[in-house]
């Protein structure tokens, strides 16, 4: 069991599907909440219409509507950012960044996405919105750190002719 937590081994590529799953989970939560609270059901044939349908649905309370809409926002933001994260992890691996750093930065990004999703879905105040923005920026910062480290590592190794 100790080898599972051996950060000298590279686990960073496994965080890419984890990030994708974390992007999907808020949508699953939103659809389940909508189905539980509304007399209508989530229409799997038109999944992108959920936010508009929730806003127009008079059978659910405003707090639930807002929660479903925020969960959909968290999902959208996750998918908008998973490409940046995947590219950063791949760049770090191609450049041969030390495994400890790859694991720490990619693991930190995963933690930031969990926290981001929770804050986004639970957010009901300006302070929570500010915290959400801070968590988002920290996740982007971790991606940028991977890119900079990869660039620094490859800067002298690549010679263009």
Brief description of this entry?
With 161 residues, the protein is an all-alpha fold.
Summary tags:
73% helix, 161 residues, mainly alpha, 5 helices
- Rounded to an integer in angstroms, the radius of gyration calculated over CA atoms is 19 Å
Largest sheet: none
Order of helices and strands: HHHHH
For the termini, the CA-CA separation is: 49 Å
In percent, how much strand structure appears in the residues? under 5%
Number of contiguous helices = 5
Low-pLDDT residue intervals, each spanning 5 or more residues = none
Secondary-structure-based class equals mainly alpha
General shape: elongated
Helix content: over 70%
Overall average residue pLDDT: 91
Number of extended strands:
0
Question: How would you describe what is shown here?
Answer:
With 161 residues, the chain is an all-alpha fold. 73% of the residues lie in helices and 0% in strands. Helix 2 packs antiparallel against helix 3. The radius of gyration is 19 Å and the shape is elongated.
């Amino acid at each position: 069991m100790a080898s599972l937590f051996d950060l000298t081994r590279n686990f960073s590529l496994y965080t890419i599907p984890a990030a994708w799953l974390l992007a999907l989970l808020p949508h699953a939560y939103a659809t389940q909440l909508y189905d539980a609270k509304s007399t209508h059901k989530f229409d799997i044939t038109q999944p992108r219409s959920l936010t508009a349908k929730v806003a127009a649905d008079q059978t659910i309370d405003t707090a639930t509507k807002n929660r479903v809409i925020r969960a959909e926002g968290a999902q959208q933001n996750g998918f908008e950012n998973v490409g940046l994260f995947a590219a950063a992890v791949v760049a770090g691996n191609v450049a041969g960044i030390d495994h400890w750093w790859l694991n720490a930065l990619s693991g930190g990004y995963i933690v930031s996405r969990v926290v981001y999703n929770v804050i986004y879905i639970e957010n009901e105040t300006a302070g929570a919105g500010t915290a959400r923005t801070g968590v988002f920026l920290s996740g982007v910062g971790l991606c940028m750190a991977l890119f900079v480290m990869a660039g620094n590592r490859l800067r002298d190794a690549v010679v263009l002719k």
